[in-house]
Amino acid sequence: MAADRMLRFVEREQSYPDKRSAEDRAQDFREIAERYAAPDADAQAARCSQCGVPYCSVHCPLHNHIPDWLRLTAEGRLREAYELSNATSTMPEICGRICPQDRLCEGNCVIEFSGHGAVTIGSVEKYITDTAWAEGWVEPLHVRAATGQSVGIIGAGPAGLTAAEYLRAEGHEVHVYDRHDRAGGLLTYGIPGFKLEKDVVMRRIERLEQGGIHFHLGFDVGSEATLDALRQKHDAILVATGVYKAREINVAGNGADGVIAALDYLIASNRKGFGDAVPAFDDGSLDAKGKHVVVIGGGDTAMDCVRTAVRQGAKSVKCLYRRDRENMPGSQREVSNAEEEGVEFVWLSAPESFTADKKVKEVAVAGMRLGAPDASGRRSPEVDPGRKFDLPADMVIKALGFDPEELPHLFGAPDLSVTRWGTLRVDHQTMMTSLPGVFAAGDIVRGASLVVWGIRDGRDVSEQMSKWLKAKAKSEKKAA
């Protein structure tokens, strides 16, 4: 019986795909883990307990049908597993690579609670869709009859691309505007290749282009065209810009040469990977080679920076974080990967100042300790007066998170309402902003978050926009 293939978590140990050695992977930007071989993927999928209440699905922002496609994988019905995985996600192989499964699906796996180790959901998800691409099962975008309506999407990141796919499938003409010269947003320029190789992103974008979605790249809304001009051109607009304004740290020496923003650093590295000319990398400003590098922050962006610096040949790489390991926001797996690659974590520490001549040369560090919990439930860091020390630094990378840009000003749209945090204010039922026909989704609404939430928001907003467009078409038909 097919059911006999499942519930093998007692007799089969948890096994992730083999990682390349730390020494080997530190030499390049290839992904660090190999793909499962088919028997291994089947065996790991068969560990699923098929529990009555699948907490893995509940804690997945997309509510993927995880137990169902694990069962199909275990049964060797891989094409069906792919089709079910693809039914709820526009980018399953990307989520399989970069989602923090330890905080989402795998972290809430029932057999993890029983002490047997979670099902390796992300690795199986990656395996399923990579196989689908290799076998030619990934079909072109199926587009319904043309509606005669046009949609403009500002931002080609996960939320924008997901909404573009669903809206194009409905038969709308879809135009995507992005300031960068390649689509993908942080998938393309923010996340390093060792977590997400770029051909994985590019093939998704090519599929959308082949489906008739129009990409306007190097297009800066505000200077190339105001938001109002785009509203005149399209029946509906989606703002899915993400949040790109780096948070600053207010300490002496912050403006010194060699003190740089994380995103500038990661974009330069990714551009080099594409083979682009990057003067600020070539002159050494954004290249960590031979330098003592200090990264400030404890999120996934900080992990991307420290691991990139290792690959660029830094002399030493240290990560300062003001809380301890248990209270950091980044993925614990990423911390472990970084430690394996030679990164040193300096927990409970924060910069007091940066010492520089012409360039930064040292970080004065204050020790921290954890006090009472803050509003997020995490214990607040406070200065420990008994600990102070200095660290040598030729490059300091600030990875403190991101805030929204001032979109009403940038877009020439003063009536576009924002919250006190600068995110766009929307009706949370319709996902429409204060401007009729202008919707918003992703990080520009919820603040800096995960790629999987961007995909979820893109899926949700496309449904709301479709409803609104149908009502608009009906109204115009009546008026005619």
UniProtKB/TrEMBL annotation:
Residues 25-136 form the Dihydroprymidine dehydrogenase domain. Residues 151-453 form the FAD/NAD(P)-binding domain. One of its GO terms (molecular function) is 4 iron, 4 sulfur cluster binding. Its cofactor is [4Fe-4S] cluster. Keywords: 4Fe-4S, Iron, Iron-sulfur, Metal-binding, NADP, Oxidoreductase. It comes from the Bacteria. SUPFAM superfamilies: alpha-helical ferredoxin, Nucleotide-binding domain. InterPro entries: DPD_II (IPR028261), FAD/NAD-bd_sf (IPR036188), FAD/NAD-binding_dom (IPR023753), GltD-like (IPR006006), Helical_ferredxn (IPR009051). This is Dihydropyrimidine dehydrogenase. It comes from Sphingopyxis macrogoltabida (Sphingomonas macrogoltabidus).
